[in-house]
UniProtKB/TrEMBL annotation:
Family as reported in the entry's similarity comment: Belongs to the binding-protein-dependent transport system permease family.
A Pfam short name: BPD_transp_1
Keywords: Membrane, Transmembrane, Transmembrane helix, Transport
Location in the cell: Cell membrane
Protein name: ABC transporter permease subunit
Residues covered by the ABC transmembrane type-1 domain: 441-729
Length: 743
């Protein structure tokens, strides 16, 4: 070999070595970057999700003495702070209202004194109202108001006291008896007031508000009735904000009055609501006014609300909470289903009712807490001890999100029993988000199950036939055609499924069921007939082309199924199969249901399973099949005992790849299901999946809200689902490969 030839050979070897190294580095780098990207996605999801599981934190703020002395302060009726956490207001039982500036260390900046002989007082925390009852049967309603302005670009907050129902006292008792106890509630322009007079008579007055068309003022029309059946001892009166119920506490019994129609006021029932080993100390309402909180002197607080059972709505014990000591003060959060208690030992406890959890418990005060309040944004807590006011900064952004609320049954207000519920939004102002991940996780598994139920038999059987029986010429056409189906946008499949297939199935439900049953049976019958035909007829068809004969059969069976559908529906189902399912069998039917999803998503999954499974079967070494046939095994025995076993790792991987595709599918389930998060395995009902839920609700979710972060948690759960499926698939595939690789 000449020197020049050796030089060229050496140069070519170096180029190949360089290309090999470059390819090796590129592949390695790409693999590492993919893993890094997956890890970044994983940790970013955890970063967004983590805050919803943080514990509530309460940190001390300011502490100062109010201007009044403890002897002249009176008892606090309503304590609160405006939204900017700058001005504190305090109503006492002597008719005095004071405003204090937190930036100025509790300086009193405004004060109002109610004129008249105050004999009773009532508060409404939700509407920030206080009512003072007088000795002449009248009462007056006051409310704090804050006017915000920006002179010279500096925020200025000016407090004032307003009178929502006029500056003149309203007549509650026409007989002008002194009011010893009082309760008020407001619903729009309507006002209701219940009182106990000095002689022990219960009086309820409903003021119907109507706006004057000319002046624009709200005119009140009173209607007074006497409360029947009151007990001799009345400890507390409490009206609900919807003006529906009046609760009267007498020792450990609570009298529940229906006051919706004041002219037909009636006592519904009397319930004993005290906790075991305790006595009722006070009643209060949760935000929204649908739940009654019953505080006991042994530190336990129970929640009650109406539950419908056997056609009747009754107040029912729901759950119980235990504070760390005897409860002195209790207050509900303004717009959430939580409440806070202050105990006689100075312990402060924060609870959330829906989650059934105590979020915080710590000793932060002395043993003389006289008032407790939470800011409108739930970010500041006020404690009043004597004339000392203490503020605390609260971090409790996501109290409604707990593992229990997301993964177990929860008893929500208005529901007959504990349930798994996903309902993140509503038009109601007192709505409580219900963020259980169980229904949408179930929907994800359900959609994947029905998709694979439809796709796996078709895809695997087609792959085996194409790789093992079909002629090479026909295989070159069929395999690329099926693989091209994978490029079809899923939004097109979802569009067709939702707007064409779903109505078609609804109007021809018997025909679709007949088709799903008769098509495989007719194919088996055709195979049986073909097998018993004379050899000269069978030999007339080239080997591997027999499947073409099934095309007319498929078309014929499909046409006959739908052609006979109206007749079958008329004869067996009274002309309406859907009504028969619902009325006779008790099976619900949604137009966009699991059957539609299974067929549509099955078509999307079939190419994936088919392609991988076909490659696995086709890659089985020929010497194995030839050896099996040479030893006397039939073609079917060779297929089932040699080819399928050898190709089983690839076939299993194909199915798991299809499962992963089905679990993560978005557009088909988004357009072809009712998107209702229900838990029902019925093939005629719809579902909502994790992926579809994220696609639907993420654009509307407020950034960093509980809803927003739970949607990221749903994405994390979907990520974990896919990871687990792929891990199991790889583990089983390796086991199958180790078992059958020696064949």
């Amino acid at each position: 070999m000449s020197t020049e030839t050796q030089t060229l050979a050496l140069s070519g070897s170096r180029r190949r070595w360089f290309k090999d190294r470059l390819a090796h580095i590129g592949v390695t780098t790409g693999g590492i970057l993919v893993l890094v990207a997956l890890l970044l996605i994983f940790f970013y999801l955890l970063y967004v999700v983590k805050p919803i599981f943080d514990d509530a934190r309460v940190e001390p703020g300011q502490e100062f003495s109010l201007v009044e002395s403890a002897s002249s302060m009176g008892n606090t009726v309503l304590l609160g702070v405006e939204e900017q956490n700058e001005l504190v207001y305090r109503f006492n039982d002597r008719g005095e209202v004071n405003f204090y500036s937190l930036p100025e260390k509790g300086k009193r900046i405004y004060s109002v004194q109610v004129e008249g002989d105050v004999t009773s007082v009532a508060r409404n925390i939700g509407d920030k109202m206080v009512a003072y009852g007088f000795n002449d049967g009248r009462f007056m309603v006051l409310s704090p108001k804050f006017n915000v302005s920006y002179p010279d670009n500096v925020r200025t907050i000016k407090p004032e006291v307003v009178f929502p129902f006029g500056e003149q006292p309203l007549v509650l008792d026409e007989q002008q008896r002194s009011l010893s106890q009082l309760s008020i509630a407001r619903n729009g322009d309507d006002l209701a007031a219940a009182a106990l007079t000095a002689d022990g008579t219960g009086v309820l007055t409903r003021f119907a508000g109507k706006e004057n068309f000319i002046t624009g003022e709200v005119e009140l029309t009173p209607t007074q009735v006497t409360i029947p059946g009151l007990p001799e001892q009345v400890d507390q009166l409490l009206l609900t904000p919807n003006l529906r119920f009046l609760f009267v506490r007498s020792a450990n019994e609570v009298y529940i009055y229906d006051v919706r129609n004041i002219n037909k006021l009636r006592l519904r029932n009397v319930l004993t609501m005290n906790a075991v080993g305790g006595n009722i100390s006070s009643l209060s309402l949760l935000s929204g006014g649908n739940s009654l909180l019953v505080a006991n002197d042994n530190g336990k607080v129970s929640q009650w609300f109406e539950v419908t059972r056997d056609g009747k709505r009754e107040f029912t014990f729901i759950r119980e909470f235990e504070a760390n000591g005897t409860i002195e003060q209790i207050t509900s959060e303004v717009n959430r289903k939580g409440f806070i208690t202050a105990s006689s030992n100075g312990s402060l406890d924060i609870f959330h009712t829906t989650g059934g959890t105590r979020l915080f418990s710590e000793k932060l005060a002395g043993d003389q807490v006289s008032a407790l309040a939470i800011s409108p944004r739930n970010s500041m807590l006020l404690l009043l001890e004597g004339n000392t006011l203490s503020t605390f900064h609260v971090e409790n952004e996501h109290p409604e999100v707990t593992w229990r609320a997301m993964w177990t049954k929860v008893w929500y207000e208005g529901y007959p029993e504990p349930q798994y519920v996903w309902q993140s939004t509503s038009g109601s102002s007192d709505f409580e988000a219900k963020l259980s991940l169980v229904p949408i996780s179930f929907g994800t598994i359900k959609a994947a199950f029905y998709a694979l139920l439809f796709a796996v038999p078709i895809a695997v059987a087609g792959a085996v036939y194409t790789a093992y029986f079909m002629s090479s010429g026909l295989r070159k056409v069929v395999k690329p055609t099926v693989e091209i189906m994978e490029a079809l946008p899923t939004v097109i499949l979802g569009f067709l499924a939702g707007l064409w297939l779903a109505p078609l199935i609804e109007t021809h439900l018997p025909g679709m069921v007949i088709l799903l049953v008769m098509l495989p049976l007719s194919i088996l019958l055709m195979a049986f007939v073909w097998h018993h035909l004379p050899k000269r007829i069978r030999n007339a068809v080239p080997e591997g082309w027999q499947c073409i004969l099934l095309l007319p059969l498929v078309v014929l069976v499909g046409w006959m199924s739908f052609a006979f559908s109206p007749l079958v529906e008329t004869v067996f189902f009274g002309g309406n199969a859907r009504s028969f399912l619902t009325n006779e069998l008790g099976i619900g039917f949604d137009q966009r249901n699991s059957l539609v999803v299974g067929i549509a998503m099955g078509f999307a999954v079939i190419p994936t399973i088919f392609s991988i499974a076909e490659d696995a079967v086709f890659s089985v070494p020929r010497h194995l099949t030839n050896g099996s046939l040479a030893l006397g095994a039939t073609t079917w025995q060779t297929l089932t005992r040699v080819v399928m076993l050898t190709a089983s790792p690839g076939i299993f991987s194909a199915v798991m790849m299809g499962l992963g595709r089905a679990v993560g599918e978005t557009m088909i389930v988004l357009m072809a299901t009712g998107n209702t998060p229900v838990m029902d395995f019925s093939i005629f009902n719809g579902m909502r999946t994790l992926a579809a839920n994220i696609a639907v609700e993420m654009p509307e979710a407020e950034v960093n809200s509980s809803h927003y972060r739970v949607l990221f948690l749903a994405a994390f759960v979907l990520f974990v689902f896919t990871f687990l499926f792929n891990t199991v698939a790889e583990f089983v595939r390796q086991r199958l490969r180790d078992k059958y690789s020696s064949m």
